[in-house]
Amino acid sequence: MKTFIPKDPGENRRWLVVDAAGKPLGRVAVEIANALRGKDQPTFTPWVDTGAFVVVTNAAKVKLTGNKEQDKIYQHFTGYRSGLYETTAEEMRAKHPDWMIKKAVEGMLPGNTLARGMMRRLKVYAGAEHPHEAQNPSAF
Predict the structure, then answer these.
(1) Quick one: pLDDT at residue 11?
(2) Where in the sequence is the domain holding 65, given as residue range(s)?
């Protein structure tokens, strides 16, 4: 009996739309990470990138539970001395609401070269509109 190994779908990848309004950040990020990896398909193989394109809308309306709006801190280090920048989730939501979802999903993907390709297929928008209607995305 031969082992089935799926091929990279290339142009035939699925397109999914996720509406993040009112949903907890972590739970939305898990769904997105699984769709990007292809874990929601029966042909999932860890070393083959068979995931879908994921379009996230209403990123500015994602919900944080508890006091995370003021307590959660995002850190960025430039590489220079005293180059550590810290931003609260409240400031991040005001300036770059799409980064909150991108950082959460990035932390849930494996730390290898496949993850970089998966992150390129993630499209996050703060509002309800997105420019990917021509791809006929299906609701997730």
Answers:
(1) 83
(2) 14-139
